[in-house]
Amino acid sequence: MPITDVTDLYEEFGDERLPPGQHETSDFPVLSKGNTPTWDPETWSFRVSGAVDEELELSWDEFTALPSVTQRQDFHCVTGWSRFDCEFTGVTFPELAERAGVHDDACHVMFTSLDDYTTDLPLDDCMREEVLFAYGFDGEDLPADHGGPLRIVTPHKYAYKGAKWVCGVEFLTEPERGFWEKRGYSVTADPWAEDRYS
């Protein structure tokens, strides 16, 4: 599968690839709100709900059979580190949204995870080809401690917007707040503006 390089995305948001207040690392630290959940590919399902024409419930085999892409992206953690040139494989957010048929009055998105983590984003911030439901990392399955089997990657946002172990997405007609957003983290989460906290 060809790799699409989207590491120039920063040009839309700032002058430097490394956002202010960040340091580059070749490591990939593991940060989670709790323990890594277990999952069973035979019973796992992914749900698309809310303001859509067709609510979807996809098995693991059905999800991984969807058209996929591999992208080279940068990854920015709110705690101050960035990892360049990550290769993620998965399904783009617009691909899934198109299959569900998003209503005109939908304006916001809530992601849910196997560990009950939630995070929210405006719909416009999600409807980008760089926003992936990723199940592959650097040519291998996405490791469990980094969100496998499936996580969201959001290279234009701090990574707490990229829910690990994601198992559902709800299209909303009014904004709602996710786990960290309710606890004072920034709603916008723009690394180039250093939008870390509200």
Automatic annotation (TrEMBL):
InterPro entries: OxRdtase_Mopterin-bd_dom, OxRdtase_Mopterin-bd_sf
CDD domains (alphabetical): arch_bact_SO_family_Moco
Domain Oxidoreductase molybdopterin-binding intervals: 34-180
PANTHER family in the record: OXIDOREDUCTASE MOLYBDOPTERIN-BINDING DOMAIN-CONTAINING PROTEIN, PROTEIN-METHIONINE-SULFOXIDE REDUCTASE
Name used for this protein in its record: Sulfite oxidase-like oxidoreductase
Species: Halorientalis pallida
